């Protein structure tokens, strides 16, 4: 049985093993488990049942991970994406006063369109049309974005009304958990200790427990909340999508999810060393897995599901096959029943991992042709745009709009793939829709 699994996931070819894959899967899970608690709080603001969203989030993540692992054999986990869930709750439901059931129907329709363009291989064509320099910029930009998330979640970087952002307060005890974790993890990484990121998380948790900053859970096991309040609600309300405004909502769900997940897939594949001749092997299967996960999530009752940036933590500790995220998916299922134990994995515990992973992903910058301004300018806008706009898709949009312009200015317009010209107009429309 063990040999069959190892052969199916190509352990030998990918130079990995059961222990490495399981540690990587656990590390990925610990890095992204916060979504099980954040997503219900965000979508709960729209009036959705938090318990049902909690279960939907866990199941959608588990199914998405397993489909990606088994079908595409990539260590890239899936879960409801941050940012688009806030758009769902605060912009669509609260801002536009659209019932959450109708908004969920919008996610369902967007996921069907998503699946269609995947089957027609349009997503694959678009990803392969992106120049290698911009792919490296996407990878590095995601690294900066992830590091920024870690610094903010850990309390080291905070909002500042005078300077936009600034240094956090070190009089806050929880911030020191992040500081300890970052120093401890960095030390282990430099020493090349296997599983350094995961060990760093465990160490931070133990320190937090002893310091009283992290509290022991009151119980160990709890039943998974009922899925009934959200299950199939989107499917039932598809008929409510009958106005131009609602179709704009559907289009926005589609565009944001498309470029967030496409960018994340490319960035993670680059980090893991999977890219060959500027192409992602098995990209069709990866995109099909991604699209299916989004459709599944809309049926269960959650905002769009897509490739999760935190997968980079598992890749960083050696995860190279789909068995990594099969492990992650199994842990999401277990997480539904052991949710009280997960409270010890605070944002201060996961923050150092995100910062270190950001460093690793930012190494892709050395592959960018910085001596050519027509490449350097759009690449830089992608990288700096992601953390500063707090959006992977917005960062990509800034760079992709600038790329054809700088290439034409350098008299290299003929080298630009026709799809990149098409994306130039798509992203201009994308910004027009978001700012409508």
From TrEMBL:
For this protein, the record's InterPro entries field holds: Azg-like, Azg-like_bact_archaea, NCS2
Among its keywords, does the record have Transmembrane helix? Answer: yes
Q: Which UniProt keywords apply?
A: Cell membrane, Membrane, Transmembrane, Transmembrane helix, Transport
Q: Where are the transmembrane segments?
A: 21-39, 51-72, 79-98, 104-122, 134-152, 164-190, 197-224, 244-270, 315-334, 341-363, 375-404, 416-434
Q: Where in the cell is it found?
A: Cell membrane
Sorted alphabetically, the Gene Ontology cellular component annotations on this record are: plasma membrane
Is the Transmembrane helix keyword given for this protein? yes
Q: How does it sit in the membrane?
A: Multi-pass membrane protein
What are this entry's molecular-function GO terms? purine nucleobase transmembrane transporter activity
* Pfam families attached to this UniProt entry: Xan_ur_permease
UniProt record similarity statement: Belongs to the nucleobase:cation symporter-2 (NCS2) (TC 2.A.40) family. Azg-like subfamily.
Q: What is this protein called?
A: Transport protein
**Protein species of origin:** Pediococcus argentinicus
